[in-house]
Specification:
The protein has 692 residues and is α/β, with parallel strands linked by helices. It has helices at 7-16, 33-36, 105-113, 133-154, 172-182, 193-213, 226-241, 274-283, 330-335, 342-354, 361-364, 378-382, 388-396, 402-424, 446-454, 460-472, 477-490, 495-505, 511-521, 545-550, 559-562, 570-575, 592-608; strands spanning 89-93, 116-121, 159-161, 215-221, 245-249, 620-623, 629-632, 676-683, 686-691. The chain contains 23 helices and 9 strands. Helix 5 crosses helix 6, helix 5 crosses helix 7 (226-241) and helix 13 (388-396) runs antiparallel to helix 14 (402-424).
């Protein structure tokens, strides 16, 4: 009932299960036919607080594939004169995260109801967290492929619209959309002028398309991003005002965030961490159902609305130079290494799951130097060319022992967890979840940030990862962790800067996943990282193949010196044609342990000045939207007593939070975590005797 929240969806779901269409009281309040068929976040049906959500519900992820209620079903009608009106159709509004034909609940529902007009709207002005440049390049090719698939399988089309949003002041559609927007509450995390402009312009264009195609219903997949939800709310209000039914369906995740209830406190793990979340998902209702095939047939509308060209969307468009000429098409080289289509996504999944990649994942997943060590499916999942249910069941049906698949199988749950975090903390792309961490002092060294972005830090593993990212739009997961750790732990630069760069340069940039990863790396997330990855050991690249590919100026060095060329004898450097400071940059951080001590000291000062957020065990406290306070994991190194002193670890403890750093200097023991720091850190009137 938390996912099927309108009378139309309820009827369809009950019919699919062969049950009587009894309407529950919570859904029986709609009075007019249009409201009867709308998606359920209407006044009076808003989501309950986290602490009040039901523990058991009907399947929160099953798509509504049966024919919608009569209020949604198109029909041939007659006007007052008795003349036959055009046969009404349904719009299927494709989003940036569901670009596929298979396992697409809105497409199946619309196709079963009558003629279908598939459409995609890309306003010129979009929200702050709209797709970055690299992701736009992927979207462009994904839309090209989707249009080809519609043409091949159904002789259908994809209607593209790229409204400017300026328009004539007398434009009735913009006026109606603006009026609708004024009635909609602004979600947290989406209260910017750009998000408002995107919402109004999108709603106006869908109204226009509905009129041009005689559509009586619009189907779409729900977004779980705050700005996307604002767009949907305005679209829904505008369409309802014209008597057009709206059906929004689940399909981007395995579990709906609104259906998952994580109680505050310890639940076999700290609040919001993976295992308590997994158990909460299992309590929320039946497990995911199997993916559906693409519709067998699809009728076209009586008359096709006009469509813009793909180029009109200006996705990843080359820059216009000051003289008016067009700059280099930077995206062409980046996309040359990718095949972007739903069929390619299915092949990549089959090759990985059935071709030995999944079987070897547990042993090889940290290796950046071995092709096939990871699946490279992330961008296909991000844009919905691969359904999460398809991958979930492909792994389950592989027939491999649990020990071989458990980590990879949980990747989809991590993905759901990120969206759950974003639903609870919609400002997490830029605001610390641990609110007091907003006062953390970060370095503002713009030149160091630029060196990191361009892969010129003088640390080959970091530089290889960042150059790979810039060239291909993708980076191995383990290397992402290396470069993030370097930016935060050793450069002392805010995680927000890292998140923004990744958002713009990753083809698989997912707002929820990217934000969760960077918050945890920056220690302000729900599950702060309990490790520091070395930028100089190259453990992810033992053969040296990764660095040699992306930092070719070092390719001639022996592997034992490749990841730390400053340690190589002068004769070795000369023989390899390497001159530090000339052919390859000097390290921008000559003393890693000293740099990290500065960063940790800043964190301890912040925590000591925020003891109201420190519990008796030295852990950080956060406040949930329900008003409940809960403890979140805090590494032993950062735990404080009630008086602001560093809290010593329990005697003999080697549990989570007391592990040593993975950074080593030379051949000695770990420095940084576990090492002693003499002296005190000033925190105003408080003093901290520090050891870490």
């Amino acid at each position: 009932e938390s996912a099927v929240r309108s009378r139309a969806e309820w009827r369809a779901a009950r019919e699919q299960l062969g049950l009587s269409p009894d309407i529950p009281a919570a859904l029986s309040t709609a009075e007019d036919p249009a409201a009867d068929a709308t998606e359920a976040t209407e006044p009076g049906l808003s989501e309950p607080p986290l602490s009040k959500r039901p523990r058991r519900q009907s399947n929160p992820i099953a798509p509504v594939d049966a024919e919608p209620a009569a209020a949604v079903s198109p029909a041939t009608s007659a006007g007052a004169s008795g003349a036959a009106a055009p046969t009404a159709c349904s719009l299927v509004w494709f989003r940036t995260f569901d670009i596929r034909l298979a396992d697409h609940a809105p497409l199946r529902a619309a196709a079963s109801a009558g003629p279908v007009c598939p459409c995609f709207v890309w306003p010129a002005r979009r929200g702050t967290w709209s797709l970055g440049g690299a992701a736009q390049a992927w979207l462009r090719e994904a839309l090209r492929s989707l249009a080809g698939g519609l043409r091949e399988h159904y002789s259908s089309r994809l209607v593209l619209r790229a409204p400017s949003g300026g328009g004539d002041a007398s434009d009735e559609y913009l006026a109606a959309a603006a009026a609708a927007s004024s009635k909609v509450a602004v979600p947290r995390g989406a209260d910017c002028a750009a998000a408002e402009a995107e919402a109004v312009t999108t709603a106006a264009e869908l109204l226009r398309l509905a009129d041009e195609s005689s559509a009586r219903a619009v189907y779409w997949h729900r977004s779980y991003e705050p700005e996307g939800q604002r767009v949907e709310a305005v679209v829904r209000e505008a369409l309802r005002g014209r008597g057009i039914a709206c059906v929004a369906m689940a399909g981007a995740l395995l579990y709906e965030p609104a259906a998952v209830h994580c109680p505050a406190g310890w639940q076999g793990g700290h609040w919001g961490t993976l295992m308590p979340f997994l158990r909460a998902c299992e309590r929320s209702g039946p497990p995911p159902t199997r993916p559906t095939e693409r519709p067998v047939a699809m009728q076209p509308p009586c008359a096709w609305p006009a469509s813009g060209a793909l180029e009109d969307l200006r996705l990843a468009a080359p820059p216009v130079l000051s003289g008016g000429s067009v700059g280099r098409d930077w995206s062409a080289a980046m996309m040359a290494g990718w095949e972007v289509s739903e069929a390619a996504a299915a092949r990549a999944m089959e090759d990985f799951v059935g071709g030995g990649g999944l079987a070897g994942y547990e042993a090889r997943r940290s290796r950046a130097d071995e092709p096939g060590a990871v699946s490279r499916l992330s961008a296909f999942l991000r844009f919905g060319q691969l359904s999460p249910r398809a991958l979930h069941f492909a792994v389950r049906d592989a027939g491999l022992p649990r020990e071989q698949v458990k980590t990879f199988a949980r990747r989809l749950h991590w993905r759901d967890l990120a969206s759950f975090h974003l639903s609870v903390f919609p400002e997490m792309p830029w605001r610390p979840i641990r609110a007091h961490y907003a006062s953390h002092e970060w370095s503002g060294d713009a030149s160091a940030l630029r060196a990191w972005q361009r892969g010129n830090t003088g640390f080959p593993m970091v530089d290889a990862g960042m150059r790979c990212l810039y060239a291909t739009g993708w980076m191995h997961q383990s290397v992402r962790m290396v470069v993030a750790s370097f930016l935060i732990e050793y450069l002392g630069i805010s995680w927000v800067d890292g998140a923004r760069w990744f958002h713009d340069t990753l083809v698989d940039a997912d707002l929820a996943i990217n934000s969760m990863m960077w918050q945890n790396a920056g220690r302000s997330g729900i599950d702060q990282w309990n490790f520091v990855l070395s930028p100089e050991t190259g453990s992810q690249d033992p053969s040296g193949g990764y660095v040699r590919k992306w930092v070719p100026e070092l390719a001639g060095l022996p592997t034992k010196h490749l990841h730390a060329p400053w340690k190589a004898p002068a004769a070795t450097l000369s023989a390899a044609g390497v001159e530090l400071g000339a052919t390859y940059p000097h390290r921008i951080v000559p003393d890693l342990p000293a740099a990290r001590r500065i960063t940790v000291a800043a964190l301890l000062r912040m925590r000591a000045s925020s003891l109201d957020f420190n519990d008796a065990g030295g852990y950080d406290l956060i406040t949930l939207p329900t008003g409940e306070t809960t403890r979140v994991f805090t590494k032993q190194e950062f735990r404080l007593t009630a008086s602001g002193l560093l809290k010593p670890p329990p005697s003999g403890s080697r549990g989570r939070g007391s592990a040593r750093s993975r950074h080593t200097s030379g051949g000695g023991r770990a420095s940084g975590r576990g090492a002693q720091l003499q002296g005190k850190v000033s925190t105003g009137q408080k003093k901290i005797s520090s050891f870490f």
